[in-house]
Design goal:
Radius of gyration: 21 Å
Distance between the termini: 40 Å
Shape: elongated
Number of strands: 25
Helix content: under 10%
Structural class: mainly beta
Number of helices: 1
Order of helices and strands: EHEEEEEEEEEEEEEEEEEEEEEEEE
Largest sheet: 4 strands, mixed
Strand order of the largest sheet: 1-8-2-3
């Protein structure tokens, strides 16, 4: 059954950014980062097939689709994945994707209205907000987007970018993986290294010598130093363990007096200013920060032990 939803007008809100940041940040997909692509001329944008554009005079058709590895997602009539952005807000509905962001992310525009095809989406959750390009469709308040590298059903190049962009589920939430996560046991190196790095979108934060992002967890405590991440938690969050020969600090920005150790089942966990340290399972190399902001409790850690600041 096809249902038509009128598209009400809501005022476009402006975004704020931190003055300390040099450039906007919208997430990486490969080593050729999205932030780099966003600074290039239009000729360097992702290779998007000709003719994929949104006609303001046409209705926007949305439906529910199934793709391998994810719970049901919202797509266009042709199966193009629809995303939501964690830097936006749902209450009130507000888009923060403007300017350079739009070189990679295309707002889903309503045209003359929104049509739900085949059921599965409650039309009461659909609305629109005004933006320069037209009326952007929202689902449960979240503005919707396409990733320009996705062209057909099953393509999910934007899924999970920097822990900010996710395929939308029919209720307006984030689609979840259906692939079981295999537990990975923490490994004890000869020497655990700590240093400081800077990547697009962040103030300086702590990594290991290979550039892997190091996190802190708000459910833990630093006075006294105590970890609360055990069992299922360690399947995604790997404790940073001291090496067999201890911990080596590679950056003068880290005060060695603030580095400590606590006991846990896997070994000696490294702490910084009392906060137990972790890796996120999906982060493997410099620039990957998929764990930042997870459940609003996990954050990259700054050299002084505080939460590393993200630049919006």
């Amino acid at each position: 059954m096809r249902k038509f939803i009128a598209a009400p007008l809501i005022a476009l809100a402006a975004i704020a950014s931190l003055a300390a940041c040099d450039a906007p940040f919208y997430g990486d997909s490969t080593e050729d980062t999205a932030s780099q692509e966003a600074q290039q001329d239009n000729a360097d944008e992702p290779n998007v097939a000709q003719g994929i554009s949104q006609n303001d005079e046409e209705e926007k058709v949305l439906k529910v689709s199934k793709v391998p590895g994810l719970t049901p997602i919202v797509t266009s009539a042709t199966g193009r994945t629809v995303y939501r952005f964690d830097n936006d807000s749902a209450n009130p509905s507000k888009s923060t994707c403007i300017d350079a962001c739009l070189k990679l992310w295309e707002p889903v525009l309503a045209g003359s209205g929104v049509v739900v095809e085949g059921g599965g989406i409650d039309e009461r959750l659909l609305s629109t907000i005004d933006r320069a390009e037209g009326k952007q469709v929202t689902l449960k308040g979240w503005p919707l987007y396409y990733f320009k590298a996705d062209l057909r059903l099953g393509e999910l190049s934007g899924q999970g970018l920097k822990g900010l962009w996710f395929a939308a589920n029919p209720e307006g939430g984030k689609a979840k993986s259906t692939t079981p996560v295999k537990p990975t046991a923490p490994t004890q190196k000869d020497v655990q290294t700590l240093t400081v790095n800077v990547v697009d979108g962040f103030m300086p934060f702590v990594t290991n010598g290979a550039g892997r992002t190091i996190y802190r967890f708000d459910n833990d405590s630093n006075k006294p130093a105590k970890t609360t991440c055990f069992g299922e938690c360690t399947k995604k969050w790997e404790p940073v363990l001291a090496g067999k020969k201890g911990v080596k600090i590679l950056s003068s920005k880290i005060n060695g007096a603030r580095v400590g150790l606590i006991d846990r089942p896997e070994g000696k966990q490294v702490t910084l200013n009392g906060w137990p340290l972790y890796y996120f399972a999906k982060d493997k190399k410099l620039g990957e920060t998929a764990g930042y902001g997870v459940n609003n409790k996990w954050f990259a850690i700054a050299p002084d032990g505080k939460k590393a600041v993200r630049c919006l």
